[in-house]
Design a protein that fits this description.
- About 40% of the residues lie in helices and about 15% in strands.
- The chain has about 600 residues and is of the alpha/beta class.
- It has a 7-stranded mixed sheet with strand order 5-4-1-6-10-7-11, sandwiched between helices. Strands 12-20-17-15-13-14 form a 6-stranded parallel sheet, with helices on one face.
- It starts with a strand and ends with a helix.
- Bound molecules: nicotinamide-adenine-dinucleotide (NAD) and zinc ion.
- Zinc ion binds near residues 514 and 528.
Amino acid sequence: MKIIAMIPARYGASRFPGKLMQDLGGKPVIVRTYEAAKETHLFDEVYVVTDSKIIFNEIELSGGKAIMSKKEHDCGSDRIAEAVEHMDIDIVVNVQGDEPFTSKEGLEQVLNVFKGADSDKIDLASLMTEIHDWKEISDPNCVKVIVDKESYALYFSRSPIPYPRDKNAAVQYYKHKGIYAFRKQALLDFYRLPMRTLEAAEKIECIRYLEYGKNIKMAISNTQGIEIDTPEDLIRANKVLKEENKNTDNTPNDKYRNFPMVPKVVFGKGCFDQLASILAPKRKNKAPFIYIVDDVFTDNKAFIERINIRFNDKLLFVSTKEEPKTTQIDDIVKEIKSEFNYTPSGIIGIGGGSVLDIAKAVSIMLTNKGSASDYQGWDLVRNKAIYHVGIPTISGTGAEVSRTTVLSGPKIKLGINSDYTPFDQVVLDSDLTQGVPKNQWFYTGMDCFIHCVESLNGTFLNAFSQSYGEKAYDLCKEIFLDDTITEEDSRAKLMMASWHGGMSIAYSQVGIAHAMSYGMSYVLGTKHGIGNCIVFNHLEEYYPEGVALFRKMVESHQIEIPTDICKNLTEDQIETMIDVALGLVPLWENALGNDWATIMTREKLRDMYLKM
Ligand code: NAD
Ligand code: ZN
């Protein structure tokens, strides 16, 4: 008998977007689930079947087997049915993608059902758990099941079944668990059968089998898994995993990250004019350089002339009114591909964090198929990017040194974090930052300051991060508080502060300000620099020294920090903000330690947001 496991994995989940790609002890939830299913050794094969390229790539990359579903599906079993239609198998078990701790015991029980004398009669098997609490029994989110004396399901319902007319009758209630083992034919039948009224009324898939006279045999399993439905579940799951790791003694051999750095950098006033000679050896016959430039420079003729466009090179102005989007990257790549028959010699990004990120992403997407949104996450990029150069014209984000390019996708805001992301060459010419408006100079500069505060106060801090963080922190103090420093000096120092700040978080993490401003930006579109400032201004409880200094800087430069941003938010907006912020587990862990979830509750976070 050939038995396989299928893990249906839909990317978008209404309550917790992208939950299957959330980090669970260094691996995405879906990879954990896959590995857990594999480790039971109960299956000939384990597959993930998904609608998402991101999940597909992630599973393949981790050495697993994944299948892209061809059609839109309403439910997981349809997705599985499509996948197994042409497979030579007898039994398929569906494993829930969001149950990373799926126990061997439960899966064994559901398979054992087919080993009984009545095996031929059974179309599918499923599991149930005893429940005792009336609150749970009467909760419509909890599906109850009743069985006959041979444990065949009689009915599934969201109502309490049976109804306890006689309160003294000794009746055991059971909750249905969403694990099934199907005979292949039963699953294919289900796929073709139209929904009937009982199923439609209760919104419970497996009622369809009963309505068509199929036999579902139930087994009791009282093991408790953790389903990841909310950010809080994820926190619990991370804790459980930590405990488990403590008890086993295997140290992973990838404990320390091995990351690339920018291999070439030129620094100095006016070094921008060396660009042509830096690029010359990189030019490939007939293949152009593409310059992606912030459109703030559109009318700055003198500056554009210095860029030294040659042959068929292309100048592409981009707007930074909004933060970079995956669709914007896809459009630029399409434009370049349709205009040139050759892969460009290189991409040169000239601008702030937004343009630098766009340049990095475009250089990746010119050699990797699909949409930029397929690669949002960690290490999903397969092919080396084309040669790319970063030239900052405003300082603070550290995007010039970092290993990520932050993009808003259709479903999430998340960077393409990969070994191919960092620039091959960076040109640091502090003269280029001369025209930056004062408020913007401050907001972006504070991104650097906040990176340092969060890194230096974080629990992930090590000497590597600290050495860069302390230097950048001191430079920021000098730049923003010492009024004897010349403007020219200040520009050069901020450029280096940004660099060090970026290096500092490479090995550590940012913290509360970033987690919260990320939530704010997702819901309100608030830009990164100003969003950080709005949030950080309210974090004296967590970063007392940093916030005190920040306020001094604000005062000394007479900067206005917007207030009452979250005052008129709808309940939905605030809930999403909280979900997005709490989803960034590593940031909270860095800021508040392992027990962060007991400190930063939803209520606490809501209170904080409402003050902003
Ligand atoms: P930005 O690139 O959006 O630029 C801010 C403003 O400054 C824009 O209006 C721009 O036109 C203007 N500007 C830039 N240079 C100028 C100049 N020389 N003269 C006049 N105006 C100039 O802002 P930013 O704060 O540098 O970057 C924010 C972005 O960086 C966000 O999208 C954020 O997600 C991203 N980010 C990325 C990383 C990373 O590691 N990749 C880190 C932090 C932030
Ligand atoms: Zn930042």
